[in-house]
Design goal:
InterPro entries: AAA+_ATPase, P-loop_NTPase, T2SS/T4SS_dom, T2SS_E_N_sf, T2SS_GspE_N. By secondary structure, this protein is an alpha/beta fold. The chain has 24 helices and 19 strands. The protein folds into three domains: 133 residues, Type II secretion system, protein E, N-terminal domain (GMP Synthetase, Chain A, domain 3, 2-Layer Sandwich), CATH 3.30.300.160; 125 residues, Beta-Lactamase (2-Layer Sandwich), CATH 3.30.450.90; 196 residues, P-loop containing nucleotide triphosphate hydrolases (Rossmann fold), CATH 3.40.50. The chain starts with 5 loop residues before the first helix and ends with a helix.
């Protein structure tokens, strides 16, 4: 049952009306061309979620399904299956019940394997079907004590040839383990930071930096050299900044890209590695966190044949993902989409993608000017950084192209005066922009340990600003005494943080005639914002409060990223 072939998936998904024939054929073609699992392509294209596919396969074969990423796993039972067996056979021991041990595996119909498991566990096995992707994400539990493994490998460095590139080299194992651990922990960045005495490894998970492990500087220097070799950087250069990139393959074959930045500091070379998916995982607006009402506004904007849509927010606020989600809607054979990015974070079939290269003087402005001559219907500019790029982008939007781009502004309304500051004529701004999306990312409450509570107006974030309690009560539609909020208690699934994953909070400013008049008269961002709110715009703070009342995030998270 582990091998699920295309014909089986076609019967399961197309015959039952879950996918169209064209959607399935396109995914199958991509999987064949890239020599990848059809299941992976289907989930990454957003056609079906991994857990939904797993549940369908389980039900179709008469088995219970285990979404192992959300399971409360009993460590005492879990570690009874050795790591090498769990990895090769794709199985996990979950918990002990009165009638046996619950085991998740990709072959719940393998009688011989179940027999061996029963001998190993000295108990009857209750088999559950789980997807290979889900099991692989939980296998990192075997490396839960990162510090212990790190120290053991570091000690094994003595009396070994550290220049050896084999898998048995402790330095190779250390770097591989950091990358694998970071991937399964869903870290966006891995920081390696030297100090005078030791060096630290920190992971940025859901926007927050966490200390993971520290090490001797002697070990750190070998790790830096190994990463430089992987990224094709100069190992003999220690005084200049260097940038590189490489692709890393996980034990089960899945791959991801790593963008490497090396910067010299007083204490040695500092490294930051950004982890990037090889393939863009298609998501819809609901996955981003947009309400149905807000999603309709975006769809109206992208339906325009020309004009401009801007996404604003600081670095790491999810702007690129929002742009790619819009491109996903527009990506059709009859539409030519061209992008200029720094860097190209995801390669998408059907798009002409250009990467900024300062060494060859290929800037955003020069790349954009060249793209206009490539007969595009849609142009995506990774970021408007200067007056020249802004001017070309606006002119492109005026001359029959739909232009998508980003700006660094605090909110939607501030974007309009910012463009005027970049010497764009107000009448051009008023006539080209259809929609401005401002956004931030907040951490989501862990569904495994979510709990409700009654907030105290005299404690925590409510004590610092009495207006907040009024605002929350207003959106809840009840008095503050009757408001219920949510938080994560902390559990093994979320690493005791109370959070897993992130979601966006948004404000969408649609261009209207009153706002056009305000732009023409050089109105302030405050005047523009008040008019937009009067026309029905939901602010980021208000969107965040709605998500706290719905149990998606916490009030503390919303206030961390949105102004009151």
């Amino acid at each position: 049952m582990r091998v699920i072939d295309a014909e089986y998936l076609k019967r399961l998904l197309v015959t039952n009306g879950l996918l169209t024939q064209d959607e399935f054929a396109a995914a199958q073609s991509e999987a064949t061309y890239q020599s990848r699992s059809l299941e992976d392509v289907l989930t990454e294209r957003g056609l079906i979620k991994d857990e939904e596919l797993g549940r369908l396969v389980a039900e179709d074969n008469g088995f219970h399904f285990a979404d192992v990423r959300r399971e409360r796993i009993d460590d005492e039972i879990f570690f009874q299956i050795p790591e090498d067996v769990a990895r090769t056979q794709y199985m996990l021991a979950l918990s002990k019940e009165a009638n046996g041990v619950r085991v998740a595996l990709t072959e719940p119909d393998n009688v011989e394997l179940l027999g061996l498991l029963e001998k190993r566990l000295s108990a009857p096995v209750i088999p559950y079907y789980a997807t290979q992707r889900g099991i692989c994400q939980v296998l990192i539990r075997y490396k839960a004590d990162l510090k212990e493994i790190f120290d053991r490998l570091a000690k094994s460095m003595e009396d070994q040839d550290l220049q050896n590139d084999s898998a048995q080299n402790p330095i190779v194992q250390l770097v591989n383990m950091l990358l694998e651990y970071g991937y399964y922990k869903k870290a966006s960045d891995i920081h390696l930071e030297p100090s005078r005495a030791r060096a630290a490894v920190r992971f940025r998970i859901d926007g927050i930096l966490y200390d993971m492990v520290d090490m001797e500087l002697s070990v750190y220097e070998f790790i830096v050299s190994r990463i430089k070799i992987l990224a094709n950087l100069r190992t003999d250069e220690h005084q200049a900044a260097q940038d590189g990139k490489f692709r890393f393959a996980l034990p089960q074959g899945e791959q991801f890209d790593i963008r490497v930045s090396v910067v010299p500091t007083n204490n040695g070379e500092n490294i930051v590695m950004r982890l990037l998916s090889v393939q863009y995982r298609f998501v819809d607006f609901r996955d981003l966190g947009l309400s149905e009402h807000a999603s309709q506004k975006v769809r109206r904007a992208v339906d325009n044949p020309y004009g401009m849509i801007l996404v604003t927010g600081p670095t790491g606020s999810g702007k690129t993902t929002s742009l790619y989600t819009m491109l996903q809607l527009l990506n059709k054979r009859e539409v030519h989409i061209a992008t200029i990015e720094d860097p190209v974070e995801y390669e998408i079939a059907g798009l002409t993608q250009i990467q900024v290269n300062t060494r060859t003087d290929l800037t955003f402005a020069k790349g954009l000017r060249a793209l206009v001559r490539q007969d595009p219907d849609v142009i995506m500019v990774g970021e408007i950084r200067d007056e020249e790029t802004a001017g070309i982008a606006i002119n492109s939007a005026l001359t029959g192209h739909l232009v998508l781009s980003t700006l660094h502004t605090n909110d939607a309304a501030t974007t309009l005066p910012r463009l005027i500051d970049m010497h764009i004529e107000p009448f051009l701004i008023a006539s080209t922009i259809h929609l401005i999306i401002a956004q931030r990312l907040v951490r989501k409450i862990c569904v495994s340990c979510i709990e409700s509570y009654k907030p105290d107006s005299n404690a925590g974030v409510f004590a610092t600003d009495p207006h907040l309690a009024e605002l929350v009560a207003h959106h809840a539609g009840v008095s503050f005494d009757n408001v219920r909020l949510y938080r994560g208690a902390g559990c093994k699934v979320c690493g005791q943080t109370g959070y897993t994953g992130r979601v966006g909070i948004f404000e969408l400013l649609e261009m209207s005639e009153p706002i056009r008049q305000l732009i023409m008269h050089h109105a302030t961002s405050e005047e523009i914002e008040q008019t937009a709110i009067g026309e029905g715009m939901t602010t980021m703070l208000e969107d965040g409060i709605q998500k706290t009342l719905s149990g998606i995030s916490t009030i503390e998270e919303v206030l961390r990223v949105a102004r009151l």
